[in-house]
Amino acid sequence: MDGKATLAAIKIELAERVRALAARGIVPGLGTVLVGDDPGSRWYVAAKHRDCAEIGIRSIARELPAGTSQGEVEAVVDELNADPECTAFLVQQPTGLDEFAILSRVDPDKDVDGLHPVNLGSLVLGRAAPLPCTPMGIIELLRRYEVPIAGAQAVVIGRGLTVGRPLGLLLTRRSENATVTLCHTGTRDLAEHVRRADIVVAAAGVPGLITADMVKPGAAVLDVGVSRVDGKIAGDVSRAGEQDVARVAGFLAPNPGGVGPMTRAMLLGNVVAAAERQR
Ligand SMILES: Nc1nc(=O)c2c([nH]1)NC[C@@H]1CN(c3ccc(C(=O)N[C@@H](CCC(=O)O)C(=O)O)cc3)C=[N+]21
């Protein structure tokens, strides 16, 4: 499953909606707040702004030095909340600060990550709200490759706030109708769970955790793990030699090249949707 190609296709669809907004005199704006100088975070934020430029979304990039205080970051959040040119924004994680306090301070209607407590509450309650980008990107990738979700056994490995926990909620909605097993580092017999799955989403951050012998032939496997091994991205899904999951999977979203670009696609979609709502 090619996330880069799917991102390109989604950009064409979103550019059309941006043009329709422009015809009404509305230009959506994405704000980003980057704290410190981590090269990975810098790359992600720069990629988001390149995406925006391509489809006609304005960029508002705020860079704060390492060592910026909680209060200073919150003051920037307040500014972006009040800025009418800023349709939606995010504070790139990790900041090393109180992430919950920062997320909670963002205007829920401008929350492009879908991670504000009110928006996560809406997800639990099944009410319309911005949805988390990586989990939505996973579902969109499955849909576009016509992987059946309704009635499928889905095993999600990882219970983090940005991927595993909200993905379990999304996949069990009536509109998706999957049966979900949410596994984690405390799961006994992980291989037994994975072997039963039609859809495997690996988001534990353990390099090479999922091996070919654990995967049901024909299953869809999505690699969301991001670790760095020798400076290169290493996913949770084994891609080497005999245990290469590509040998048994029916569909594979590799990392890089799979879910990462889909996260960016859903983020763009959340900006456009926020502009359409605010109009
Ligand atoms: N507030 C906040 N919102 C986020 O959405 C957020 C964040 N913080 N912190 C970090 C994670 C990570 N993330 C990715 C975005 C794009 C790729 C991506 O496009 N990856 C490419 C290239 C990877 C590479 O080559 O470095 C790929 O997988 O092919 C990956 C990961 C967004 N995040």
TrEMBL record:
Stretches assigned to the Tetrahydrofolate dehydrogenase/cyclohydrolase NAD(P)-binding domain: 132-278
> Which Gene3D superfamilies does UniProt cross-reference here?
Leucine Dehydrogenase, chain A, domain 1, NAD(P)-binding Rossmann-like Domain
What top-level branch of life does the organism fall under? Bacteria
Q: Pathway, per UniProt? A: One-carbon metabolism; tetrahydrofolate interconversion
**Location of the Tetrahydrofolate dehydrogenase/cyclohydrolase catalytic domain:** 1-113
Q: What is its EC number?
A: 1.5.1.5, 3.5.4.9
Q: Name one Pfam family in it.
A: THF_DHG_CYH_C
The Gene Ontology terms for molecular function here are:
methenyltetrahydrofolate cyclohydrolase activity; methylenetetrahydrofolate dehydrogenase (NADP+) activity
Q: Where does NADP(+) bind?
A: G158, R159, G160, V226
Q: Name one GO cellular component term.
A: cytosol
Q: Which UniProt keywords apply?
A: Amino-acid biosynthesis, Histidine biosynthesis, Hydrolase, Methionine biosynthesis, Multifunctional enzyme, NADP, One-carbon metabolism, Oxidoreductase, Purine biosynthesis
Keyword Signal part of the UniProt annotation: no
- Chemical reaction(s) catalysed: (6R)-5,10-methylene-5,6,7,8-tetrahydrofolate + NADP(+) = (6R)-5,10-methenyltetrahydrofolate + NADPH; (6R)-5,10-methenyltetrahydrofolate + H2O = (6R)-10-formyltetrahydrofolate + H(+)
Gene Ontology annotations of biological process type: L-histidine biosynthetic process; methionine biosynthetic process; purine nucleotide biosynthetic process; tetrahydrofolate interconversion
The record's subunit annotation is:
Homodimer.
Name the protein family.
Belongs to the tetrahydrofolate dehydrogenase/cyclohydrolase family.
What function does the entry list?
A: Catalyzes the oxidation of 5,10-methylenetetrahydrofolate to 5,10-methenyltetrahydrofolate and then the hydrolysis of 5,10-methenyltetrahydrofolate to 10-formyltetrahydrofolate.
**Full protein name:** Bifunctional protein FolD
**Organism of origin:** Nakamurella flavida
